[in-house]
Fold each of these.
Amino acid sequence: MDKLVKRAADDIGNAGNVAALTGAGISVESGIPPFRGKGGIWEKIDPMEFAHIDTFMRDPVKVWDVLLKDMKEIIDKAKPNAAHLGLAKLEKMNKLKTIITQNVDGLHQMAGNTDVIEFHGNFAWQKCMKCGNRCETGKVDLSRIPPKCKCGGMFRPECVFFGEMIPPDYLARSQQAAARCDVMLVIGTSALVQPASYIPVIAKENGAKVIEINPERTPLTSRVSDYLVKGKAGDVVTDILAAMESS
Ligand code: NAD
Ligand code: ZN
């Protein structure tokens, strides 16, 4: 068995309170491309341009056409993978208390986790920019872009665009979860998007062990994280759970 898988299984086994910070990488095995890295959306478009609130306000048709329509189709089809299901199992084992996710795909909740902070909002709901009316994304008429509310206002997804603030209560709850955990799992995030990448630093400063799961190194590796278990999220989480069961 991989030494680091065993170490992670022991660290989680000994912890009373585990938190997880997840990013786009955890959903790659569910068929959702990440922004950065191999096969990432970045290879085709610049998300800093297309997922920026200024671009959306200036040219909503372009953002819906190039980014949001595709995202909706991909997210609609996606199912939780072994990593999401493994985290749900860790919650049932009473180890994992809170997931802070940067993802907008809703897959952690679909897997069964109950305390999920959607740091960057979600793509499941749209909000009218004029009257504030909310509508499930699946029920919004996309035959006309941009989609419109009955009042004539434009719908926007309830996710946080680049250039927008993280809802303050999400930020506060994430900081609390990071400060009180004994182990933080950092799974599938490039740790380049602020302020999400600061969450593991808070965990570390409060004495938690920080374990990264990612096929690649990130700016957190060696500096903030105690160690990196290299590999795909689904494989590594499955191996860690198997190691916990066999010890
Ligand atoms: P990112 O795209 O910047 O980085 C993805 C990370 O995942 C990289 O470090 C990569 O090495 C790693 N990775 C790739 N395949 C993996 C696998 N199989 N298992 C584990 N790790 C893997 O992602 P980010 O840090 O989350 O930042 C991007 C932002 O874009 C997020 O804030 C999020 O809001 C948004 N986004 C969300 C989704 C989604 O909801 N699924 C998808 C794309 C982008
Ligand atoms: Zn409206």
Amino acid sequence: MGQSQHKKSAITWTDGREVPLIGQGTWNMGEKASLRQEEVRALQLGFELGMTLVDTAEMYAEGGAEEIVGEAIRGRRDDVYLVSKAYPHHADRQGLAQACEASLTRMGTEHVDMYLLHWRGNIPLEETIQGMEKLREQGKIRNWGVSNLDKSDMEELWSLSNGKACAVNQVLYHAASRGIEYDLLPWSRTHGVPVMAYCPIAQGGRLRRGLLEHPIMVDIAASHGVTPSQIALAWVIRDGDVWAIPKAVQESHVRENAAAASIQLTPEQLQQIDEAFPPPTRKQPLDMV
Ligand code: NDP
């Protein structure tokens, strides 16, 4: 993996719009009414600190997270790059139209900037493409993409009519889960499909402890005067062409995540991380949560 001399903080979209490399996730938001205001405030603080990309889905709290997003973007819709996702069982023409409409209503907006197929289900990709293209023609979505699709799925998508209109693939990626570097990430780069990394700080479980508590991450963080989570984020966006969408409700976390956009890891530090978490040398199944 190469690395740039000048730290990039955004990906420039084909329409010239700049979308910050570190955005905000919303999974688990909207589950509890008592946390609602805190979650809205967290997203708004994130917007103010430059994390104007927000990722949500009809699945999260069964629409509850989209309602939080709707409240957070009120009065600043144009400043926000809005990503949402449809369930696989809604991914035919009619299902997508209905799901998208319901999402737009919950978020109080006329369009989604990027609408994703959440994961691949039983509905043929052709039908999903047709449904997405229809929504695009109607102006309900600006672009569409996919999530949790591996290289073979992407190749299949590319072989279908209008499949090359797919504008992003959102997959799990962090330093302790690097399987996509073997084939999916190179394929995505060759075909100009940016990757959006979910779970960029390895939420939950074994991998999180293994990543954030690893002595190398702790040492590198100390040398920058930041936290291991911030190093994990800086690592994900190190090449300037992968988005990271950490989810944070605690104010300190929101501030840390926004500040991570300007951390420049040195070649030596990237090498140390490679030694601690070696890149893949053979095909690995796509990690998912
Ligand atoms: P993350 O890796 O973003 O981890 C979220 C957890 O990390 C929360 O508990 C949060 O705590 C904590 N956290 C956030 N910032 C910090 C920090 N600076 N230091 C320490 N802890 C921190 O996991 P997610 O699973 O939420 O993934 C991110 C987003 O990606 C999701 O919210 C969702 O939008 C998307 N996603 C997409 C999937 C897909 O299938 N397409 C699957 C999974 C996620 P707190 O909230 O208390 O601040």
